[in-house]
Amino acid sequence: MYTMDISIDQNDFPNSDAQPNKRRRKKSMVWEHFTIETVDADCIRACCNQCKKSFAYISGSKLAGTSHLKRHIALGICPVSRHNQGKDQPSPYIPAPRTNISANGNFPRKRHRAANGVGSIYISEDNYSHELAKMIIQHEYPLHMVEHSGFIDFARTLQPQFNITSVTPVQEQVMGIYFREKHKLLDLLSGMSGRLNLTVDLWTSNQSIAYVLLTGHFIDNDWKLQRRILNFITVQFPDSDTAFSHAIADCLTDWGAEDKLFTVTSDRSYAKEKNRDNLRNLLSIKNSLILNGQLLINSCYARILRSLAQDAIGSMRETIEKVRQSVKYVKTSDAHEERFTKLKQQLQVPSTKHLMIDNLTNWSSTYQMLMAASELKEVFSCLDTSDPDYKLSPQMEEWEQVETLCAYLKIFYEAANILTSPVYPTTNLFFHEAWKIHLELMHGANSQDFFVSCLTKPLMEKFTKYWDDCNLVLAVAVVMDPRFKMRLVEFSFSRIYGEDVETWINIVDEGLHELYLEYLVQSLPAPTFIEGENDTLVKTEPQEEGLLSNTDGFSDFDIYISDIMSAQHMKSELDQYLEEPLLPRVQDFDVLGWWKMNRSKYPTLSKLASDVLSIPLSTISAESVFDMREKKIDSYRSSLRPSILQALVCSKDWLQHESSEVPLGISTEISAAAVKTEF
């Protein structure tokens, strides 16, 4: 049998007839707000003096205590007490702060009751307003939610002193967070030794306002690939030839990176050829036409995959609609799904996939729906014969076509999936996916199967344009992977280009050496000149020595060996790197970590590698990789000031990388100094 020791604080008993035999003690302060009501001999209740609500207090031998009574007043639960705050009414019961640490710095062994009530944690207005602003930023809540009566009531239930009831203080906190995080990012960018790569994306709104999203990709001093949104700029004339160049120039000036821009990635769907030409003068590489001008990439990797998937799905629109309606027939009725499951068990279909209805705005969901349905095609065929109401089953020939389509969608899906990783992929990884897509589409276009050929020929034509736009950048990036170097380029190009392979390999090799030479020249110290009397350098002619002057006859041999050694030392870092054996292929190879360890061996080439491996191939964020719609700003956000909108978009991205809390005083100080210029 268990026994329970219940300790009762006598301070909690009111001075009433309920305690006739007890010594009279000082009452708890809660009784200034409650009155004892005796219901009967075994039941005593406490009534709030303000809202008149009745609470349990004593029932028979059980004592309910006063904690719930204190919460009713202290937390502002009492509606009358909350309404009277700020008026000439008696102040509600406010608990005293709880002391958890003794004077000597140790935790007390026993919790002592505060002299004037229970303990609580004091939350300053700066604390909760800062956290409120962070919540609004991270979850894209509207700023004016703080004016909603429901939110105010909820907040004051948690914190009676909550008094943010207008948008202005929230905007000030948002701008404070923005400037604080921007300062941290400025420090990160100023400390990087490499160059900056940019992506340019175009967003729109229902109000026909255009926005340019600029995202920076770079390698930090710890050789980690970083991706940060830098600016979100409203542009009045997105169709003008200079819209993007002006936005990028402003961005580089804003971040102090005018001489660090290496590449720019956009997409031909919104960036015209003239836009791209206007960007060349902003690049830090003097020869902007190096690698056939592919340092300006005009094709987005995620968009080309989306376009291929859309075209492939669209080519089988009628068949896919049959599959979709079949899946809906099963999934929208419990009886139908139960019958389908029984048929699957009877047929012993080994598929572990579950049927799902696709989202028409997300092409990966359509692929997954088709994959699951095609693996259960036998069940659908039997359902057609056993259920008279089901009349949508595709024919076996159509199921075979769906399986062929899924084989190509799987290639696109796996290629796009590398963009959904929490860590943005290095550029070398894109080459593996791109050349496999090129090869599979090429084989499909040349297939003797009429359906396969008709499906893949249009896809091949579209992807070839993408491949021509960026194949050299992709190839140079994979050469910087010590597991492959030029060998994978040679192997893949031989399968793609056939007899013309040598021409394309030479283009990659020459472009790589030209790029390396650019880095080598920039790493050399400035030339110095020594002035003589006649402004000429003094040269010493070598003396001719005959064989008789040598004591042992090996002097010339020594010179010969020295010349050979000098020639070997004169080999460039790039040539030495390419001649060394390949590293073994391991799945989780850290290519940036390898270059970090070998930067002393390849001081110039490692700088080139860090810049090349951070070139972004996609302008779309990870969460939008499979979306079939372009990004749009909603009507509310497009009505905000451009400075506030930029702060919200940028800060959401920056807070994801927040490693440690900065004292609130810092953000408040930044806000006070900077927000004045924004409002």
Structure, explained:
The structure is a single chain. The N terminus and C terminus are likely disordered. Helix content is 47%, strand content 10%. The chain is built from 24 helices and twelve strands. It is α/β, with parallel strands linked by helices. Among the domains are: 45 residues, no CATH class; 150 residues, Nucleotidyltransferase, domain 5 (2-Layer Sandwich); 120 residues, no CATH class; 128 residues, no CATH class. The strands form three sheets. Strands 7, 8, 9, 10, 11 and 12 form a six-stranded mixed beta sheet that branches. Strands 1-2-3-4 form a four-stranded antiparallel beta sheet, with no helix packed on it. GO terms for molecular function: DNA binding; protein dimerization activity; zinc ion binding. Its main location: nucleus. It is found in: Nucleus. It holds the Pfam family hAT-like_RNase-H.
Give a short overview.
The chain has 679 residues and is α/β, with parallel strands linked by helices. The protein has helices at residues 67-74, 79-84, 125-139, 149-158, 167-190, 243-254, 273-279, 301-314, 317-331, 334-347, 363-375, 377-386, 396-417, 428-445, 450-479, 485-497, 501-523, 555-569, 573-579, 591-597, 603-612, 635-638, 642-655, 664-674, and strands at 34-40, 43-48, 54-59, 62-63, 96-97, 119-120, 196-205, 210-219, 225-235, 261-265, 296-297, 632-633. Among the domains are: 31-75, no CATH class; 175-296 and 634-661, Nucleotidyltransferase, domain 5 (2-Layer Sandwich), CATH 3.30.420; 301-420, no CATH class; 426-524 and 590-618, no CATH class.
